[in-house]
Design brief:
Order of helices and strands: HEEEHEEEHHEEEHHHHHH
CATH topology: oxygen-dependent coproporphyrinogen oxidase
Shape: globular
Distance between the termini: 35 Å
Keywords: Cytoplasm, Heme biosynthesis, Metal-binding, Oxidoreductase, Porphyrin biosynthesis
Pathway: Porphyrin-containing compound metabolism; protoporphyrin-IX biosynthesis; protoporphyrinogen-IX from coproporphyrinogen-III (O2 route): step 1/1
Strand content: 25-35%
GO molecular function: coproporphyrinogen oxidase activity; metal ion binding; protein homodimerization activity
Structural class: alpha+beta
Number of helices: 10
CATH class: Alpha Beta
Protein name: Oxygen-dependent coproporphyrinogen-III oxidase
Helix content: 25-40%
GO cellular component, one term: cytoplasm
């Protein structure tokens, strides 16, 4: 169980993703390196690099954050399903990213790869990996959804044919706003609490998922970033971004864990879109491209 190897991979992945997105956007990400000394409330030392782009040429806001934090007492969100680990010391590390393009025809994307390790008093270690990637379009394109899901499937193909349908359904179930009775987007893959069959295999699966993100998303971003749009499309994009905010603040386990564990707020909330709009009881007119998003894309289906 070599957490140092995981950390090295995550840092390399972060830099690879940032470099590639800088090529697409033409503007540099800000690289904000931070470090925290031993604190209180169960939190020990922490360090990370938050890479952020705002008001880019293509990306209105995007963030790729690496963090490695440690504590002497597990936060409640991490022991909800593992009460036997309450009180254990722990460490968590991961790369999490969200891209919010300016063009409404270009989809938002999210990806995350992470590892959590608990240290028992007897010296034994308990680990699990988690992560995935998902796509949130504002205007649907079937070929985009098929491409994204195919790359997700490819990332898991070397391991077990049962993984993709399992992780795809997990994604559909997780990225669902129960208070709205609707999915956040067209899904992708998601997994959590993965420790089987062993550390090396679980780590390899995580690496493959992380390594496939750019090939899943960048072709879609490049294809849609220059599509002409007007105020109508922009208005709908801002409205749908509200669902993204609702999910992150109400449901997302990573956000809740970060805030509960007294994490670095700026890094935790860098996934938030820069501009959002809410309306009271609004619904798109039938037969419009906006209604098609709900009818054709915000429904779980097997895209590949």
């Amino acid at each position: 169980m070599d957490s140092a190897a995981v950390k090295e991979y995550l840092l390399e992945l972060q830099e690879l993703i940032v470099d590639r997105l800088e090529q697409v956007d033409g503007k540099k990400f800000l690289r904000d390196k931070w470090e925290r000394a031993t604190g209180s409330g169960g939190i020990g030392k922490g360090e990370g690099i938050s890479c952020i782009i705002e008001e880019g040429n293509v990306l209105e806001r995007g963030g790729v954050a690496f963090s490695h934090v440690q504590g002497d007492k597990m936060p409640a969100s991490a022991t909800a399903h593992r009460p036997e680990l309450a009180g254990c010391s722990w460490e968590a590390m991961g790369v999490s990213l969200v891209m919010h393009p300016r063009n409404p025809y270009a989809p938002t994307s999210h990806a995350n790869v992470r590892m959590f390790m608990a240290h028992k008093p007897d010296g034994d270690k308990v680990f699990w990996f988690g992560g995935g990637m998902d796509l949130t379009p504002y205007y649907g394109f079937e070929e985009d959804a098929v491409h994204f899901h195919q790359i997700c499937k490819n990332s898991l193909a070397p391991f077990d044919p049962k993984l993709h349908p399992k992780f795809k359904k997990w994604c559909d179930d997780y990225f669902f706003l129960k208070h709205r009775s609707e999915p956040r987007g067209v899904g992708g893959i998601f997994f959590d609490d993965m420790s089987e069959p062993d550390f090396d295999t679980a780590f390899a699966i995580q690496q493959s998922v992380g390594d496939h993100y750019l090939s899943a998303y960048v072709p879609l971003l490049e294809k849609r970033k220059d599509t002409p749009y007007g105020e109508r499309e922009r208005d709908f994009q801002l409205y749908r971004r509200g669902r993204y905010v609702e999910f992150n603040l109400v449901i997302d386990r990573g956000t809740i864990f970060g805030l509960q564990s007294n994490g670095r707020t700026e890094s935790i909330l860098l996934s938030m879109p820069p501009l959002v709009k809410w309306r009271y009881d609004w619904h798109p007119e039938k037969g419009t491209p906006e209604a098609e998003l709900y009818d054709k894309y915000l429904v779980p289906k097997d895209w590949v």
